[in-house]
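Action item from last week, closing it out:
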Amino acid sequence: MSRAAPARALRRGPVGVIAVALAGACLAAPAWGCALEGDDVVLQRSALDVAYPEAINVLGAVSAARHSGLIDRWRGLDEPTTAEERRAERARIEASLVTLRARLAATADADAPALAIVLVEPMLWSRLAAVRAGGTQRAGLALAVHTAGPTRGDVVAVTDEPVLERLNHNQLPAAQALSLGLLRLYGPAPRVEAVRAWLVRGDATASATRPEPNHRLAAN
């Protein structure tokens, strides 16, 4: 799915004007909020849905997948309220992202599009970007966790941590996650298709992939 500009996605009128103003105010901020930092992310989710139409539908898809048993019914449902609980939640999410990085690194090349990932429940942004390894076409994959949001030209992936957990354990193919709306991609069509193919290639190598001890991880 290609990202649509908010102004095009909304009809003109009072509601459209308010929504665009809301998106502009939030997107102009230095960083998106994050529940793991104690921020109220309800407004941020609304802005996300304006910037990336139907992104919020991931929450409904996750709820349906919980009900059907496709993903863990309880994982991620306990909202962290104390600083200690938020640290534990963040550590678990970072572990899932590190495993995803290792899964995708196996099939990355130097031309792989950068991928900005937002987990819609905590509104936590991270970023995967290919880096050349030794001047060859083989790419390493750098992971930055808790970033301020996407960079211009990134493909944006909207999903949630219980979906990553199933992907990482080879219990949910990326193609199925995409078809069910558990994972939604936004950006220029050629880049989105490249990322879609990259994710699907990862299905074939996931069982043999493990997090590398020398992964590149940066956190804000």
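Closing note: Residues 101 and 141 are 7 Å apart (CA to CA).
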